[in-house]
Amino acid sequence: MSENEERVNVGKKLREAREKKGLTLDDLQQATKIQKRYLIAIEDEKFDELPGDFYVRAFVKQYADTVGLDGNTLLKDYDDDLPQTKTAEYSNHLAQAVETRTGNRQPTVDRVDRARRYLPTVIIAVVVVIILGAIWATAIVRNRQDAATKIDSSSVSVSGESSKKSSYSSSSSKSSSKAAKLEFTAANRTTSSVTLSTTSGLTKDTDMTIKASGQAWTSVTVDGTSKLSKTLTANSTSTVSLPKGAQTVVLTLGNASATTVKIGDQTLDLTDSGKYANTRTVTIKFGATTTASSSASSTSTSAASSSVATTTNSTSTTATTNTSTQSSSTR
């Protein structure tokens, strides 16, 4: 067998072992960390393409070990076909290369083992943290519920008192609203005029609404001041603001039967339910009782003054008469 055939046999043996293992050159490169072009050179026995003689034997041995062959035995069998670099330097480099590759793999294994050792501890710590968090959350919820219960209790008592106060206030407001409601009384009614009076005065500005169902001329005077003078068309409305404290309002109507007048929420009976359809002048007086009382008081005062004067005059006359009688007797 020639030298070239023996060299081919080395590369062929390695290739057959690789294919038998079902490995590709890419797989072998991944496993051995040897570049693919060097693996191809080894299979083709082109050793001069490798970085140096040392790497030829080192790569061949590693290749053989990876594909299931005994690297040392292969080196011995093909010792003559491989570069002669069996020196102390070669042995040292080979040992360092093996140790380096072993060392590169070892830290990964150590990290995995370390993680496995600490995994139960980590799991236990996580479980403890979760339990403590659940206890803390439960305590917070209970405290909030207790605080809410106390607030609800105090709210019940306060709301009870507030409801009493509000009921009292509402009853007071109802009574005051009833007291403030305007009620008009008709007096001095004739076929063409009427006087409407109310015992309540205007405690605030109040709107008077005039609505016409047909064409009607209307004028309004408030305490001698003209507020409205116009002809209302059918279904038209006018509003006059009556100021607070107003005492007398005079309406002059051209068509009383077609005119509706409201002061606040009160509708005025201008025609006595249609009996006086030609009512022309409507006089409205606010606070009539107060005015009547003042007039009565003035009348009483005048009467009292007159009585006093009469009594004084009678006394003077009697005294004069008595004096004259006494004089006559003496004579």
Task: Describe the 3D structure.
The protein is of the alpha+beta class and 331 residues long. It is 58% helix and 17% strand. A hairpin with a 2-residue loop joins strand 8 (259-263) and strand 9 (266-267). Helix 4 packs across helix 5. The chain is rod-shaped, with a radius of gyration of 64 Å. The chain starts with a helix and ends with a helix.
Quick structural gist:
The protein has helices at 3-21, 25-32, 36-43, 53-66, 71-77, 88-180, 288-330, and strands at residues 185-187, 193-198, 206-212, 216-222, 225-232, 236-242, 248-253, 259-263, 266-267, 281-286.
Fold topology:
Blueprint: H1 3-21, H2 25-32, H3 36-43, H4 53-66, H5 71-77, H6 88-180, E1 185-187, E2 193-198, E3 206-212, E4 216-222, E5 225-232, E6 236-242, E7 248-253, E8 259-263, E9 266-267, E10 281-286, H7 288-330
Parallel strand pairs: 2-10
Antiparallel strand pairs: 1-2, 3-6, 3-8, 4-5, 4-7, 7-10, 8-9
Structural category is alpha+beta
Assign a percent range to the helix content: 55-70%
- Largest sheet: spatial strand order: 1-2-10-7-4-5
The largest β sheet comes out as: 6 strands, mixed
End-to-end distance: 211 Å
Q: Tally the beta strands.
A: 10
